[in-house]
Amino acid sequence: MREIRADDDVLTWAGAVDVEHTPGWSRAWRLPHDRIALFPGGELRSRAAMPAGVRLVLGTDARVLAGLAAVQGVEVPLDAVVDGAIVASAPVGPEGSFVLDLPPGDKLLELWLPQFGTFRLVSLAVEDGARVWAASSKPAGGSARPKLVAYGSSLTQCRQAASPARTWPALVARELGLDLTCLGFAGEAHLDPMVARVVRDLPADVVVACLGINVYGAGSFSERSLLPALLGFLSTVRDGHPGVPVLVISPLASPRREDRLGRAGLTLAQVRDQVADAVGLLTAHGDPDLHLLDGRSVLGPDHAHLLDDGLHPGPAGYELMASVIGPVVRKLLVG
User: Stretch 1-6: mean pLDDT, rounded?
Assistant: First the structure.
């Protein structure tokens, strides 16, 4: 087998905000690694080092792709995608090795990295005699794919999805031919101003922001402070993306939580109302490209059976989310 080091220029780390290279391995970051001290919180940094939505992109005619990675504790999944379709999947166990069988012929390969857990790539390998070349995710003879930036909580990072290419952001991106950057941070979507600046500065043709569930769960804002924080976060995002559609999704239904007071004295229903109020105020004050999708229309009370723990969807729930969110995103991009 022919080895390809993780820091080889033949590999494109699509969907990564930054990439950390060391002599022994490389790791994708979903926040700027060289400025990570500006993003306080060990849990936020831990989530940012998980490569949800990140793809290793390369051109090859290989029939086998093997690899070695440093992982910790749990088995994590990989998907090989060609022309938007999953052609192979493989687990990466504690020993860190994996093998994927690929279809024949020249192809633009996207290796979707795990949406959760530690994953530091040491190397890839293809069979002797196979060709490998640097390739972007730009279609042959076409223009670059529109860019989707998705921000949110664990419901956007999607650990419980069947595999990394089957999270709802990945399903929407593959269905619509979009170039995804996923900023889903499990437990850490607290409207951080510095994260808003990252969203502001990333290239984007459409932004989807799922807001409110972590605010409710952690009590990070009160009735007095939540609306100003929402207005500030969305205004910062807008500063970098004039005229770009921004879709705001309020919290999904969680029947046990709707009328239960959270730590800061807000019910989930009240948080959802404040998200709607923020969108309404900004729209009324001159932002026609800001749009609200009530989370209960994505997963409502009738879908409670799809919530594995009363909050997080399982694989079928994330597929349903994509089937609802995808057509809305398509309409925003067209219109």
Answer: 96
Q: Which two tokens stand for residue 206?
A: 């459409």
List, for residues 45-92, the tens digit of each pLDDT value: 999 999 999 999 999 999 999 999 999 878 999 999 999 999 999 999
The mean per-residue pLDDT over the stretch 157-163 comes to: 97
Query: Which pair of tokens denotes residue 37?
Result: 């001290």
Strand partners, 107: 60
Per-residue confidence (pLDDT) for residue 93, from 0 to 100: 83
Q: Which whole-number Å values give the CA distances from 213 to 14, 63, 150, 250, 291, in the listed order?
A: 28, 43, 15, 8, 18
Is residue 143 scored above 70 in pLDDT? no
Domains of the chain and CATH, by start: 2-133 (2.60.120.260), 147-334 (3.40.50.1110)
Residue 138 has pLDDT above 80, yes or no: no
pLDDT at 308: 83
The CA distance from 290 to 301, in Å, is 26
